[in-house]
Design goal:
The complex is a heterodimer of chains A (about 280) and B (about 300).
Chain A (H helix, E strand, L loop, with lengths): L8 H28 L4 H5 L2 H11 L14 E4 L5 H11 L38 H14 L6 E6 L6 H12 L5 E7 L2 E2 L2 E2 H4 L5 H7 L3 E6 L3 H11 L6 E6 L22 H14 L4
Helix pairs in contact in A: 1-3, 1-4, 1-10, 3-4, 3-9, 5-6
Chain B lengths: L1 H14 L3 E5 L9 H6 L4 E3 L4 H12 L4 E7 H4 L3 H9 L6 E5 L17 H6 L5 E3 L4 H13 L4 E4 L21 E4 L4 E5 L4 H9 L5 E5 L2 E3 L3 H11 L2 E8 L4 H12 L4 E6 L9 H7 L4 H12 L4
Parallel strand pairs in B: 1-2, 1-3, 3-4, 4-6, 5-6, 8-9, 8-11, 11-12
Antiparallel strand pairs in B: 5-10, 7-9
Classes of the chains: A alpha/beta (about 280), B alpha/beta (about 300).
The structure holds thiamine diphosphate (TPP).
Thiamine diphosphate (TPP) sits at the interface of chains A and B.
Chain lengths: ~280, ~300
């Protein structure tokens, strides 16, 4: 399990290496599930490394006590990437790997969009643009409790269209929530097409900075770099946003950097092709 | 249903030059992108910003355009307060179309399944609320709401593959349609679930009058009261919460005008969940079989 604070340089390297292996198995779980049931595969693959890094290397938490009061918390605001979160939770031991076979099936806890039935899920989502406000409330509550816990919110870039996101941006900066980190999965796509064609987001960094946040950018598939920037974020005096440059459908060639896998059920041929890619190249790692 | 909707919009774009279509990053799944191909300057995809879009529609209406907003129903409801305080309060000529309504968002689960939209829209003054039953009726309803003046909410689902009407001229705002005559129980239904209601009525020895209520507001009072009078017992079916939709509207009316036993079939006071559309209809009792058993129950309490 990932311990977090003050890891030595060397331990870091070893852990990053281990994490990459974990991510391989998480990917396999994701592909298996998307072969079994319709899934937002492209949207899940673009943020897989981010979620895995948070759970395995960064956050203080334990599957043995999901509600431990001083845990760090993760909010999946782009709830349609539920599969990525469930797969990480399975690999972590919050749920059984086999349970992924029930994803979206009638009666399953693993709903199309997350809710609190699943141990390890901290907030309901599915309606875009609400997670950051929830994260603000959590960060505030945690601060009031005098706890050192931190809150991480993952949002899509298309999701930034929602007005509520910017209301929350103002709130977080106003409250100087230094225990809050927002990560934006900047894959350049939303449902109807390229983000900049649907509604212009650039200059996204400058926009967020002008709201009073510290903003960093990172390659959202580079585990080492993600850890570094998350470590760095701990020293801020206010909320931090990390724009993670990613590819939708990362690691699966026929949907990579397209919207073709936004929501898809892999047929046998596609599934085998994706697995082969994973075996050969580690799925883009 | 959504396909029929998208196709009729393209046709109507020709006839109604003032028609402007607005959507929020759901142009593809709601089929309004067909409209963009034909009239590139009259469709605006404003991104995932439902509240903003509803406000923009209000402004367009105030400059003489006829804006038609198309969003997933459950997320259109995010702009409920904007709809209330701007569109409904000022009686603006804005058409609101909610797709993926009822349980049709199936695998996506509770967040995407709109089970409260009829209630939320029905409660607003000035609002007309329409839920057509099949592709033919969708086509006619879209034209009718564009033609009329004033705010309208039109509800459709996703891929319901039903056929209720085999002729045209089926839809008129405010008019319910009697699909089958009968004298023991009046069965009111709205939206595509009417197909299930018809099926229930066909295969039973009870004489059931099936009335398809595609306009929930204003309710066709005459049709409801006269069916209640001749049958003496009522069943209402809708792919919606049992609270606040068609069943409530019918019960509100009859409790005042002609009290008879009213059984309401819909989703109980609960959220939906992930599953196939069919599985969910079964789970929530929205099948011909379940409707039949409710008919049997209500007939014993008949007046
Ligand atoms: C409030 C709301 N409106 C619309 C949707 C439908 N929807 C689901 S995913 C999506 C696109 C999201 O784009 P982005 O945030 O960039 O995520 P990604 O590209 O990673 O899938 C939309 C519009 C929704 N889930 N919630």
């Amino acid at each position: 399990m990932g311990s977090t604070v003050e890891t030595s340089e060397l331990r870091h390297i070893i852990e990053v290496q281990k994490l990459k292996e974990k991510i391989r198995s998480i990917r396999r779980l994701v592909l298996e599930t998307a072969h079994n049931e319709n899934a937002h595969l492209g949207s899940s693959l673009s943020c897989l490394e981010i979620i895995a890094t948070l759970y395995f290397l960064k956050m203080r938490h334990t599957p043995y006590e999901p509600l431990w009061k001083d845990r760090d918390r993760f909010v999946l605001s782009k709830g349609h990437a539920a599969l990525a979160l469930y797969a990480v939770l399975a690999e972590m031991g919050y749920i059984q790997r086999e349970e992924l076979r029930t994803f979206k099936k009638l009666g399953s806890r693993l709903q199309g969009h997350p809710d609190l039935r699943v141990p390890g899920v901290e907030a309901p989502s599915g309606s875009l643009g609400q997670g950051l406000s929830i994260g603000v409330g959590m960060a505030l509550g945690i601060r009031m409790n005098g706890s050192r816990s931190r809150v991480y919110v993952l949002m899509g870039d298309g999701e930034c269209d929602e007005g509520q996101v910017w209301e929350a941006m103002m709130t977080a900066a106003h409250l100087k929530l230094s225990n809050l980190v927002l990560i934006i999965d900047r894959n350049g796509w939303q449902l109807d097409g390229r983000t900049e064609e649907v509604k212009k987001k650039v200059p996204l960094k400058a926009k967020i900075e002008s709201f009073g946040w510290e903003v960093y950018t990172v390659n959202g598939h580079d585990v080492q770099k993600i850890v570094e920037v998350l470590d760095y974020a701990e020293h801020s005096e206010g909320p931090v946003a990390i724009i993670a440059y990613t590819k939708k459908g990362h690691g699966v060639p026929f949907i990579e950097d397209t919207n073709g896998g936004h929501k898809i059920r892999l047929n046998d041929e596609q599934y085998l092709a994706a697995l082969k890619e994973l075996e050969a190249y580690g799925g883009g790692l | 249903m959504r396909r029929a909707f998208g196709e009729s919009l393209v046709r109507l774009g020709e006839l109604y030059e003032e028609l402007i279509v607005l959507t929020g990053d759901v142009g593809n799944p709601t089929y309004v992108y067909k409209f963009k191909d034909r009239y590139p300057n009259r469709l605006f995809n404003l991104g995932i910003s439902e509240q903003d879009i509803v406000g923009v529609a209000a402004g367009l209406a105030l400059t003489g355009r006829v804006p038609l907003v198309t969003l997933f129903s459950s997320f259109l409801m995010r702009a409920w307060e904007q709809i209330r305080n701007t569109i409904s309060r000022a009686n603006l000529n804005v058409k609101l179309v909610g797709t993926h309504a009822g349980l049709t968002a199936a695998d996506d689960g509770a967040s995407h399944q709109a089970l409260e939209d009829l209630a939320l829209m029905r409660v607003l003054p000035n609002m007309t609320v329409v839920a057509p039953g099949d592709p033919q009726e969708v086509k006619e309803a879209v034209e009718a709401i564009i033609e009329m003046k004033g705010p309208v909410y039109l509800r459709i689902g996703r891929d319901e593959d039903v056929r209720i009407f085999d002729r045209d001229g089926v839809f008129r705002i405010g008019k319910a349609t009697t699909l089958m005559d009968g004298s023991d129980v009046a069965l009111f239904s709205t939206g595509s679930i009417t197909a299930e209601a018809l099926e229930a009525a066909r295969c039973t020895d009870t004489s059931v009058r099936v009335v398809h209520v595609s306009t929930i507001k204003p309710l066709d009072k005459e049709a409801v009261i006269s069916a209640a009078k001749s049958c003496g017992a009522v069943v209402c079916v809708e792919e919606h919460s049992v609270i606040g939709g068609l069943g409530s509207a019918v019960a509100e009316l009859l409790s005042l005008e002609y009290p008879v036993p009213v059984a309401r079939i819909g989703i109980g006071d609960t959220f939906g969940e992930s599953g196939t559309h069919r599985e969910l209809l079964e789970k929530f009792g929205l099948t011909a079989e379940k409707i039949r058993s409710v008919i049997k129950g209500v007939i014993r309490r008949r007046r």
